[in-house]
Amino acid sequence: MQRLKWSERIGQSLNAIVLGLLAVAMFFPLYYVFVVSFTDPGEYLQKKIVLFPQHWSAEAYTYLLSTPAFARSLGNSAFLATVGTVCSLVISSSLAYALSQKRFYFRKLLMFLIVLTILFSPGIIPNYLLVRELGLINNILALILPALANGWTVLLMKNFFDSLPAEISEAASIDGCSAIRTWYTIVLPLSMPALAAFGLFFAVGYWNQFFAALLYLNDSAKWPIQVLLQNMLLNASNIDLVAPGQQVETPPTEMLKMAAIIVAIMPVLVVYPFIQKHFAKGAMVGSVKG
Predict the structure, then answer these.
(1) Which position has the higher pLDDT, 274 or 226?
(2) Cα 281 to Cα 272: distance, rounded to the nearest angstrom
(3) pTM of the predicted model, to two decimals?
(4) Per residue, what are the HEC states of 188-240?
(5) pLDDT digits over 31-85, tens only?
(6) pLDDT of 255 above 90
(7) What is the C-alpha to C-alpha distance for residues 57 and 37, in angstroms, rounded to an integer?
(8) Cα distance between residue 218 and residue 71, in whole Å
(9) 39 phi and psi, to 5 degrees?
(10) I need a labelling partner for 242 at 20 to 30 A (CA). Which of 70, 120, 209, 252 fits?
(11) Contact 162, 97 (CB under 8 A)
(12) Helix axes of 68-100 and 225-235: crossing angle, nearest 10 degrees
C-alpha cells in the first residue's frame, strides 16, 4: 500500500475536522434540550444557560406527565401509531397482493390509478372537502382513514409479492384455499420481514402526525403529541398544563417545553437504532429482482 501524500493527508484531516464540527453543531441542540429538561428548576432560574447541571432533576417530567392535557396527547399519538399502523398494513398488503395476481381482471386499471396518485396530488382543499363530507371533522379517525394506503408503498409491496414463487399460491388453490385464506395463512407469514419494515414506516408517520391534525381536529382533547408540542412552543400559557393535586411549584415554562420535546422524540430515538436495518431493507423491498 502506497503512503498517502502530504496533500492527501491534509485533505483527509480537513474533511474529518469539518465533518466533526458539523456533527457537533447538529448534536448540540438535542444535547442542550436534554440537559435543560433534567436541570433542577432552582439552578435553571439562576443560570438561564446550563451546559452541564450540578443538580439533576426529573421534576419537569414528573409535572408534565401528570397533567391531563399532556397525558391525553400521548394516548392519542399511541392510538394513532398502533391502530393506524395495523390498519394501514392490512389495507396496503391486501391491495398489493390483489394487484400481484395476474388473474385479477381490473389489475391494470387499478395500477394506472395508483400510479396516477403518485404523479398528481389533489392538494389540501380537495382532501379537506372529502374529510368534511365523510363527517370526520374533529374525529381522530380523520388522521387514519385518508392515510390508510399510499401508492408508493402499495407498489413496493406488490413487487415483493411478485417475487414470491407462484407455485405457492397455485398449490394452496389446488388444496381448496380461497384467495383470502391464501393471503393471510400463507403469503403474510412469508412476508413478515417486509411487513415489519413497512410497519415501521407507518408507525413513525402516524406518531409524527401534525399537519392533518391541525386541519381536521378542533378539540384540543383529541390533539396528538406533535400538535400539543407546537402549541406549547408558541405559547405555553394557552395550554392547560395544570397538574391536579400538585402541591409543588410549577417548573419554569422553558423546562416544560424542553421536557415535552424529549418525550415527543424519545420513542423514535430509542427504537430507531434497533430497527435501522429494517428501514434500509424497507427502502429496497421489491426494487431489485434477482
Answers:
(1) 226
(2) 13
(3) 0.80
(4) HHHCHHHHHHHHHHHHHHHHCCCHHHHHHCCCHHHCCHHHHHHHHHHHHHHCC
(5) 888 888 888 888 787 877 778 888 888 888 888 888 888 888 999 999 999 999 9
(6) no
(7) 8
(8) 18
(9) -85, 145
(10) 209
(11) no
(12) 140
Residue with cell 401509531: 81
Amino acid, res. 196: A
pLDDT beyond 50 at 198:
yes
Looking up cell 385464506 gives 181
Owner of C-alpha cell 401528570: 66
| Least confident interval from 76-90, 207-221, 276-290 | 276-290
Proportion of the chain above pLDDT 70, given as a percent: 87
Nearest 5°: the CA angle 154, 223, 120 is 30
- Residue 209 · residue 81 · CB < 8 Å: no
Q: Locate cell 409491496: which residue?
A: 157
The three grid cell numbers given for residue 32, joined into one nine-digit string: 442542550
Q: Are 211 and 94 in contact (CB under 8 A)?
A: no
Question: What DSSP state is assigned to residue 248?
Answer: S
Spatial distance between the Cα atoms of 61 and 65, rounded to a whole number of angstroms: 6
Q: Report CA-CA distances (Å) from 247 to 56, 67, 72, 243.
A: 20, 13, 22, 9
